[in-house]
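Narrative progress, year one. The postdoctoral researcher (J.K.) led the effort to move from monomer predictions toward full complexes, under supervision of the PI. The following entry was the first complex the group processed end to end, covering 344 residues in total.
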Amino acid sequence: MSRFKKKGGKDTPGISTASLPDIIFMLLFFFMVTTVMRETELLVKVSSPSAKEVQKLEKKSLVSFIYVGEPVVSKLGTNTRIQLNDAFGTVDAIPEFIAKEREARDEADRKFLTTSLKVDKSTKMGIVTDIKQKLRRVGAFKINYSVTEEYDKK
Amino acid sequence: MAAKTPELNASSMADIAFLLLIFFLVTTTMDVDTGIGRKLPPPPDPSVKPPDVKDRNVMNVLVNKSDRLLINGRPGDLSTLKDDAIEFMTPHVPDDPNYPEFNEETIDLLGTIYTSKGIISLKNDRGTSYAMYIAVQDKLALAFTEMKDVLSMKKFGKKYADIDEDQKKAINEAIPTRVSEAEPEDIGNK
């Protein structure tokens, strides 16, 4: 009879939560590692215009960025400048830049290379037209005008 | 029996880790890059003459350096550009010389349908602001999306974004996005 009786009035043991921090830490590290802030240091001020008909930029690894805007450092004046990757560039340097970007990608992926133009909204179209003409000449036809999405105010 | 060392209370550790986790979740905004995708045309071949297009088939949109619009020789406005484009691109049956010509085509899934031969030609000055250029591009894109939505609603009862690939292809064939950017010309100063 007393064979199955519980011994004494002992409390049920609490579930050990000692491993919980480890699990959470694992999640924490996962998020810390995956959210790569692939942010080249901006040398020009870019405030994107907004539009309604926008698409998401897919396959970030196949995108090369061209930034156009006023220099951040006011010492450099207020003339519109072009930034290719990490340095200031000129319109004439674009073919070389595109060639380098292509070189850095897989052979098979090269034709999917998109050029994203991050242009400040106050920029004049002249420089943008020049960039587009250069891109056309080197065969980088896929471009993407970077804009922020504008939502309907209903 | 030796006295057990009291276990360290680790239950608050989880809370601390949670706090950190939420902090990182909130602060690392994965900025999703959005943009307007376009395909540039290959450079013009000087030996090939550009095709002749009838005047009535072209809607000329000019943007000058003070961001004003000129649509087919008349001053236009950004707020009406979308409706103008839709009106221009919608086939007007019977034939109206004020609007572009149209073809009667038979397209799979859609049946016989009128397709406009209209082209929207966009030209901007070197002094046009980029914001204005994007706004115009956006309005034109919106016009085409709206026309596709209308047609797809009529034929399939769903919006363009919700129909399947074959249906999208059919709609795209019926309403091709014909926005052409004029070759830049060097006029005046920057």
